[in-house]
Amino acid sequence: MFLYLLGLVVFYYLYRWFREIPRVPDKGDKYVYITGCDSGFGNLLARHLDELGFCVIASCFTEKGEEDLRKACSGRFTTLHLDVKKNESVDKAAALIKDKVGARGLWAVVNNAGVAIPSAPCDWLTIDDYKSMLDVNLNGVIAVTLSVLPLIKKARGRVVNVASVFGRISPVGGPYTVSKYGVEAFNDSLRRNMVPFGVKVLCIEPGFFKTTVTDSIVLGKSIKQLWEKMPQEVRDDYGPDYLDKVDVMMREKLAKMSDADLMKVVSCMEHAISAVRPRTRYSPGWDAKLFWIPMSYMPTGFADWLLLKEAILPAKAVN
């Protein structure tokens, strides 16, 4: 019986592997619009797709990001400035893309732009802290997608949304997981809405990787700033040594958990864009596959116990 089940599992993965090999033809005629290309996944994906022959339109927040990419990539490559928080910037980018792609339409948009700060326990934050991140990580994704959706429908193309395993489970407080749950919901509703138009909507759910999102120095500075501006009453709840414990945890554990091989994520993005039969969801990273996603299916009480078992507790925690 065991060998029979093992054989079925092996057959399934071999079948899926062969099924997912074919790639779309005529890459040189296909335009791909990527947000958040200054660094990290977006930067690496833009370079990788350019090497594969796609016509890449890479949006950056900084002039330096645009300049570095132009120097490194081919003549097909286009850069533009984009601030996903501003509707006028999103609309201007969409108008430029419409002029560039013409009647063929836009093959794919990759919503990669995102931020990870401010992140902290919920009672450290204000509604403005939530709004600042949601404007980028969620509202920015929706705004960019809607701005070019008619062009994608014309090409019967793809929408690739970068969410996170933290769109499946919330081990930390703050707006990051809220924004990623929102991306998951938008992704699911859009995927079903676009089926009649032949548009594929795919979701990338990475685990921990070494990017600015998991940079312990950046996160540590942000947490320290939040600590210094919050009411003394809240600081007393957590105790004077709480901040130091968090700093040690981030420097020691976050560094060990984060995978340095960003190509694991970029390869999933590339497959979502170029495969004839892409997957609906991709979960790059062993921590995503073996820990976070399985935990998201566990009973809530068990998941809470497991996460709180290793958590740093406030000084006034109730026993």
From TrEMBL:
Q: Which GO terms describe its biological process?
A: steroid metabolic process
UniProtKB keywords:
Oxidoreductase
The answer to whether the entry has keyword Cell inner membrane is no
Tell me which Pfam families the record gives: adh_short (PF00106)
Checking SUPFAM superfamilies in the record gives: NAD(P)-binding Rossmann-fold domains
Gene Ontology MF term list: oxidoreductase activity
Family, according to the entry, reads as follows:
Belongs to the short-chain dehydrogenases/reductases (SDR) family.
**Per its record, how is this protein called by name?**
Retinol dehydrogenase 3
